[in-house]
Amino acid sequence: xxxxxxxxxxxxxxxxxxxxxxxxxxxxxxxxxxxxxxxxxxxxxxxxxxxxxxxxxxxxxxxxxxxxxxxxxxxxxxxxxxxxxxxxxxxxxxxxxxxxxxxxxxxxxxxxxxx
Length: 115
What we know:
Layout: E1 2-6, E2 9-11, E3 17-24, E4 32-38, E5 45-51, E6 56-58, E7 66-71, E8 76-81, E9 90-97, E10 103-105, E11 109-113
Parallel strand pairs: 2-11
Antiparallel strand pairs: 1-3, 3-8, 4-5, 4-9, 5-6, 7-8, 9-10, 9-11
């Protein structure tokens, strides 16, 4: 299983970005996909997850600003980030959890929020 993340970049505070993560490989179903982030000098933290059934979970710091969605047929997960803040600056990683518990990570995409 491979994950390809895209959509990162430089954005001003208050702006928006949309991240995408496409999964490829030999699998039919997945349990959940998600986004994590790691800021400089900090540990990787949860941003949001979504199950194949559509149940979502968000970190408190992004509730009301970020939304997560998925396209099961395309095996793609999206993270819409609105009202971005400087503290959202980080490398964002996507992952996919398989039905057997296997976990795979993408390569990360950098989001920089700065004026």
